[in-house]
């Protein structure tokens, strides 16, 4: 097979009447379903329109809400040999800004969308269309960007008829780019990871083998399809293995997290993958009186990835939902990134055997020493033994030498899943994707993550660019944030940001805490509590603690904290 589209075509021949996808917007009632045969026919109809109007390797902005139209559009692009560019339909000025930046970088030939998304864009355009000179400057810019987007060639998926179903295809090659996965990133400029059909096949084979996926599985996903875990885990893996996937609107999960678990319970779902924050979110937002509605015994793989994994979070979720039949061994802490399509490794064995208690003081010096009673410990869970399809090294970024076991360094990866690079970012591509060891071996992908090996198992300690270095010691922001949030009851999990900033030629610690309205006495008390927690557990003094509206703690659409953006706003005095 040269095109990943052929995976869908083969499924439509082998299991034509099997339901491929179900979709629920509310999380309670099903809105739509599609069999493998129906999905292939719909994708082929849209694909033929693309082939008639475009050329091989044209970029196509895929602008659809989560649901079956998105899947139809994605596979249509693959069949046409064009490069799918999944994008979040913009509903506000920041999302319009991001879409416009992506269009400037990708230079698309078409926008593949739905009538509802198009109507929303035109409504936003209409709301701003008054004499331009009378509009505030920022609204003028937004209107210009909407106009630019609507000037592109538009194809409406739900207008595509099934009258042209010629099975001609478009001469796709295995090393052609299949799609651009734009990373949410920590800067204002998103970068599109160039994923080829070969990359997709390679990563899918690793995922399905390591996660033991089969045709009898049933997955339930609410993650947005614009992100690697939602797209690969929730959409492409089911097609690759011929099982059914139930997709839920992400907003429904955020409003009613119980509905995600209820779908897993009602449909006897076996697989669902979410970031760490989602497990905390369920513990905090689902009442004990609602647990009797859930039977989670069928959930065999509860993967956790896409952001730092806290063993405390996994323990909390287990303690709450074990009465529903949930077991710790269902967990699958995993590691990956868009630059390798999705997946590097997973730990899906005896949970307690994968947990390692480290001495926090030694970790600050990049040394891995098991903690003893009386020491301040950091609990880490492994993300497993990486697949033999990869070569993974822990590298000292100072001299590009390989670190010995139990030494923290940057994680470098090479293998067939590693993408080509970033679209139209040649310097970044060379720096990130073409790294060489001091022995001359390479090229490797520099992940930007710190980690170490213990007994062949990989542990992740944090992001290099977010590490706070004070007096020569390394401190990880997620450790500081978690300790603050779990020690002070008035703070929600995910409500704080820790970062280092340079003052007087040295790095100092700053904490931003998102809170609801507090009187002056309560603010002062909270600031003192934060200072005490940080000093007690990390022996650090916080240079400044800033309390902001909780909405100022920006996150990506998959729930990751945008630490670098918030740090930049702080340093520009824009918070």
TrEMBL record:
Keywords, sorted A to Z: Fatty acid metabolism, Ligase, Lipid metabolism
Short name of one Pfam family: AMP-dom_DIP2-like
One record GO biological process: fatty acid biosynthetic process
Family to which the UniProt record says this protein belongs: Belongs to the ATP-dependent AMP-binding enzyme family.
Record's protein name: Fatty acyl-AMP ligase
GO CC terms of this entry: plasma membrane
Annotated AMP-binding enzyme C-terminal domain residues: 465-575
Gene3D superfamilies with a match to the protein in the record: 3.30.300.30, N-terminal domain of ligase-like
Residue stretches making up the AMP-dependent synthetase/ligase domain: 14-423
Domain of life of the source: Bacteria
Coiled-coil portions: none
GO MF, one example: adenylyltransferase activity
């Amino acid at each position: 097979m040269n095109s990943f589209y052929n995976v869908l075509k083969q499924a439509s021949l082998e299991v034509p009447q099997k339901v491929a996808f179900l979709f629920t917007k509310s999380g309670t009632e099903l809105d739509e379903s599609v069999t493998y045969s129906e999905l292939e026919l719909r994708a082929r109809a849209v694909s033929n329109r693309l082939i008639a109007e475009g050329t091989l390797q044209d970029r196509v902005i895929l602008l659809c809400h989560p649901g079956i139209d998105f899947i139809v559009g994605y596979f249509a692009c693959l069949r046409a040999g064009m490069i799918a560019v999944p994008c979040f339909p913009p509903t506000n000025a920041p999302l319009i800004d991001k879409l416009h930046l992506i269009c400037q970088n990708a230079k698309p030939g078409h926008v593949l969308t739905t009538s509802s998304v198009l109507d929303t864009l035109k409504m936003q355009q209409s709301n701003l269309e008054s004499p331009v000179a009378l509009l505030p400057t920022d609204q003028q810019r937004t209107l210009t960007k909407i106009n630019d987007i609507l000037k592109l060639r538009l194809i409406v998926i739900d207008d595509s008829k099934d009258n042209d179903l010629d099975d001609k295809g478009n001469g796709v090659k295995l090393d052609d780019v299949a799609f651009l996965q734009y990373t949410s990133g920590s800067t204002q400029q998103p970068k599109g990871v160039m994923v080829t059909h070969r990359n997709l096949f390679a990563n899918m084979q690793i995922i399905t083998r390591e996660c033991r996926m089969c045709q009898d599985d049933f997955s339930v996903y609410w993650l947005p399809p614009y992100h690697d875990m939602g797209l690969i885990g929730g959409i492409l893996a089911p097609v690759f293995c011929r099982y059914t996937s139930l997709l839920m609107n992400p907003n429904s999960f955020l409003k009613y997290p119980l509905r995600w678990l209820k779908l897993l319970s009602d449909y006897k779902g076996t697989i669902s993958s979410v970031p760490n924050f989602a497990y905390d979110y369920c513990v905090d937002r689902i009442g004990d009186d609602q647990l009797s509605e859930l039977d989670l015994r069928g959930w065999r793989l509860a993967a956790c990835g896409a952001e730092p994994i806290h063993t405390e979070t996994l323990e909390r979720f287990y303690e709450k939902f074990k009465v529903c039949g949930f077991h710790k061994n269902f967990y699958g802490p995993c590691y990956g990134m868009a630059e390798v399509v999705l997946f590097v490794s997973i730990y899906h064995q005896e949970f307690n055997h994968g947990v390692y208690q480290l001495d926090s003081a030694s970790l600050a010096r990049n040394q891995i020493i098991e903690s003893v009673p009386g020491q301040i410990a950091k609990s880490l869970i492994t993300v497993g033994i990486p697949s033999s399809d990869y070569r993974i090294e822990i590298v000292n970024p100072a001299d590009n030498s390989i670190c010995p076991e139990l030494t923290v360094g940057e994680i470098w990866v090479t293998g067939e899943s590693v993408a080509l690079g970033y679209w139209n970012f040649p310097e970044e591509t060379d720096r990130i994707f073409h790294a060489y060891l001091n022995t001359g071996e390479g090229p490797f992908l520099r992940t930007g993550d710190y980690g170490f090996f213990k007994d062949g198992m990989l542990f992740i300690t944090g992001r290099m660019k977010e590490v706070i270095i004070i007096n020569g010691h390394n401190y990880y922001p997620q450790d500081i944030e978690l300790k603050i949030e779990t020690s002070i009851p008035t703070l929600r999990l995910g409500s704080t940001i820790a970062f280092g900033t340079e003052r007087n030629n040295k790095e100092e610690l700053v904490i931003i805490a998102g809170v609801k309205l507090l009187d002056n006495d309560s603010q002062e008390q909270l600031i003192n509590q934060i200072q005490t927690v940080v000093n007690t557990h990390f022996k650090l003094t916080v240079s400044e603690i800033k309390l902001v509206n909780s909405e100022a703690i920006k996150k990506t659409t998959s729930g990751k904290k945008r630490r670098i953006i918030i740090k930049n706003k702080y340093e520009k005095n824009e918070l």
